[in-house]
Structures are given as structure tokens and as C-alpha cells.
Write a structure and sequence with these properties.
globular
């Protein structure tokens, strides 16, 4: 199994756990405050990972690369907004509906990669992306 596929599958499993744990944890609390706490926990956890890997020095290397840092900051802002909206959606909706709609990000990412990054997509890949879109909508409809 290619390493990227293993990591992608692990990402999918752990993302599913985010939805389940998040939905349970959001009962009777503010979604944005919960997201803020989640963000602090994630930051501390990830700093721990960087520390265990012995790569703290690489943080400084990233900070001096203005273009890379700018896009990492934009990615962080987009990620924070995604989490805020996701937790708000989980607070008021069912995981079985919010999860599939959230996965429309796959469709949007492929389209944006085609438009802005010049990534190519075959007809079979386009059909798969279309099926993801249709499937997400069908699963989310009551």
C-alpha cells in the first residue's frame, strides 16, 4: 500500500472520530468555545509531535520563508473557519448529514486544484468526483 494511501485512510478514520466525539461533546455548550479549546489541544499536541521528532529548529526555517508562511497562515485561517462552521453544523445537525456535506470539500478541492494549480483530471476521475458530490447530497437529504 502506498504511504499516501495509508495516511489518507488514517485521516478519514480520525476525521470520522472528530465528528462523533465532537457531536457528543457539544451537548449544552457553545460550539465556538469548544472549537477554541479543541484548537489549543491540537496546537499543544502538534508541538509535542514536532518536539518528539526533534524538529523544533524547522519552525524557525518556516518563519523566514515569507511566501510559504503566508500560505500557511491562509491555510490556518481557512482551517479555523472550517472547524467553526463544522462544529456549528454538528451542534444543530445530525452527524449522518453534516459529515457527507462536509466531504463536499473533496469536490471543491479537486475543482480548485484544477483551476488554480493546473492539476489534470481524467474523465474517470471527474466521474468519481461527480459521484462523490451526488452521493454526499443523497446521504444528507432527509
Amino acid at each position: 500500500m502506498p504511504l499516501w494511501l495509508l495516511y489518507a485512510l488514517l485521516s478519514a478514520v480520525t476525521a470520522a472520530l472528530v465528528a462523533i466525539f465532537g457531536k457528543i461533546g457539544l451537548q449544552n455548550i457553545d460550539a465556538n468555545s469548544a472549537t477554541a479549546i479543541r484548537s489549543v489541544i491540537m496546537a499543544l499536541f502538534l508541538l509535542g509531535v514536532v518536539g518528539v521528532q526533534g524538529k523544533f529548529s524547522e519552525l524557525g526555517d518556516i518563519l523566514v520563508q515569507k511566501k510559504a508562511l503566508s500560505f500557511i497562515v491562509l491555510s490556518g485561517i481557512a482551517g479555523a473557519l472550517s472547524w467553526l462552521f463544522y462544529f456549528l453544523a454538528l451542534k444543530y445537525g445530525k452527524v449522518s448529514q453534516v459529515g457527507p456535506i462536509d466531504k463536499l470539500s473533496v469536490v471543491i478541492a479537486v475543482i480548485l486544484a484544477f483551476v488554480f494549480l493546473g492539476e489534470k483530471i481524467s474523465w474517470i476521475n471527474a466521474a468519481g468526483v461527480a459521484l462523490i458530490a451526488v452521493g454526499a447530497l443523497l446521504v444528507a437529504v432527509k
